Amino acid sequence: MYTEFEKDSAPSLENFLKERDIDTVAFDIDNTLLATHEYYRQALYEIGMDVAERNTTSRRAEDIATEFIQIVLDEYKRGNYRPILMEEQCESALRRHFGDSLDPNLLQIVNDLLEDFYTTSPQRYEATPHVLQVIKSLGAEIVLHSHAQEEWTRIKAEDLSFAVGFTLPYLATDITEEKDSSSWLRALQLIDRDISKTLVIGDSFTSDILPAIHAGCKHLVWIDYYGTGIPKGVEIPSDVEIVVVKNIQEILKLK
Ligand SMILES: [Mg+2]
């Protein structure tokens, strides 16, 4: 009953998969299924407020916290959006903020605040469970592939599995390694599926879309949150199809 209902709710997606002979969907996790960016922002804001409370200037705590977030995000951008451990990210932001006057006690306080950061899953986007359930009901296999530590990825995958009511297999590519074409292939090997019959869905053009194409993927969905469009100078092979969407919910409207 449930399966049939779900199936009927996304007839165009069913056609989309069938017409392309797609039997598997491989998802990036962070900022594709989970609001990880918001999770970081929230944690950074809380840390920033804590830092602000120890500041002796007359500036508003909110302003200091916002500035702290900005410093961390700038560092992240400078590192070409490569994931960095939160502790390291905060430490370098604090060093930039305070310079030589950085109090070592403050570093300790920040590290204590971060203790739970990697033991909790970021929130799911509202549409995430439904999208996963519909895909499963259409008979496609699902695999998840993150660029994060094994332990944190396990927590996220378990949380998602609980929400959808079935087990979601996952591959965690540690942040000390590259999320590249071979890791995308490993994710598919995990469930014994062929990447040429897989739809890869992710928000990072450089660590999801491009490496999956290099691995032999022909059908991809890129979640382009910022509307930047496919980077100029990147040549997409003529037999590769990239659908650009704004968020995970739009997967249900693929046709
Ligand atoms: Mg991502």
Can you describe what's shown?
This protein starts with a helix and ends in a 10-residue tail after the last strand. Strand 2 (141-146), helix 8 and strand 3 form a beta-alpha-beta unit. Helix 4 crosses helix 5. The protein is elongated. 34% of the residues are buried. The protein has two domains: 2-34 and 123-253, HAD superfamily/HAD-like (Rossmann fold), CATH 3.40.50.1000; 37-119, no CATH class. Helix content is 47%, strand content 11%. It has ten helices and six strands; from the N terminus they run H-H-E-H-H-H-H-H-E-H-E-H-E-H-E-E. It has 255 residues and is α/β, with parallel strands linked by helices. Residues 28, 30-32, 202-204 line the site of magnesium ion (MG).
